[in-house]
From TrEMBL:
Alphabetized InterPro entries for the sequence: Cyt_c/b562 (IPR010980), Cyt_c_II (IPR002321), Cyt_c_prime (IPR012127)
One Pfam family hit: Cytochrom_C_2
Alphabetical GO biological process terms: electron transport chain
Stated name of the protein: C-type cytochrome
Annotated positions binding heme c: C136, C139, H140
Top-rank lineage group of the source organism: Bacteria
Gene3D superfamilies, alphabetized: Cytochrome c/b562 (1.20.120.10)
Listed GO CC annotations: periplasmic space
Signal peptide: 1-21
Keywords linked to the UniProt accession: Electron transport, Heme, Iron, Metal-binding, Signal, Transport
Source organism per UniProt: Derxia gummosa DSM 723
Molecular function (Gene Ontology), one example: iron ion binding
Keyword match Iron: yes
Length: 145
């Protein structure tokens, strides 16, 4: 848990730095690790929220809001790490399809930004979690192997 929190704080700190994608990563591998790290942390918190929404874990508004806030913040991070030399493991090239990719990323970010406000009740959380999940799925269908 401590390493997860440290990774999230590191990612949040990195997000505050005004850098260009080409300057941010010395090697393509670093870009891939960066975006995978952001996606992995979001996945952990999505699973926590999903467990509450399904009734597999007790609903805890404070914990739900904390996870939702992390997802909302991290949702802005991975996109800068889709740079040339890093897309060989994807089914489609987000760099060549930049307009479509950006639309899907924006859809996800907007849905994720609504999560913290929805975390106050299990009913609203369920609805917004479905919206975020659908945004994830639409990008996965186009780009993830």
């Amino acid at each position: 848990m401590k390493s997860l929190i440290a990774a999230a704080l590191c990612a949040l700190g990195c997000a505050a730095l005004p850098v260009h994608a080409a300057d941010a990563f010395a090697k393509p591998k670093e870009a891939v690790e960066y975006r995978e790290g952001a996606f992995n942390i979001m996945s952990v918190h999505m699973k926590r929220l999903a467990a509450m929404a399904k009734g597999d874990a007790p609903y805890d508004a404070a914990r739900a809001e904390s996870s939702a806030q992390l997802i909302a913040t991290l949702s802005t991070l991975p996109w800068e790490a889709f740079i040339p030399g890093t897309v060989g493991d994807l089914k489609s090239d987000p760099i060549r399809n930049a307009d479509n990719f950006r639309q899907l990323a924006d859809k996800f970010e907007q849905a994720a930004k609504q999560l913290p406000a929805s975390a106050g009740s299990i009913g609203t959380l369920r609805g917004q979690l479905n919206t975020v999940g659908a945004a994830c799925k639409s990008c996965h269908e186009s780009y993830r192997k």
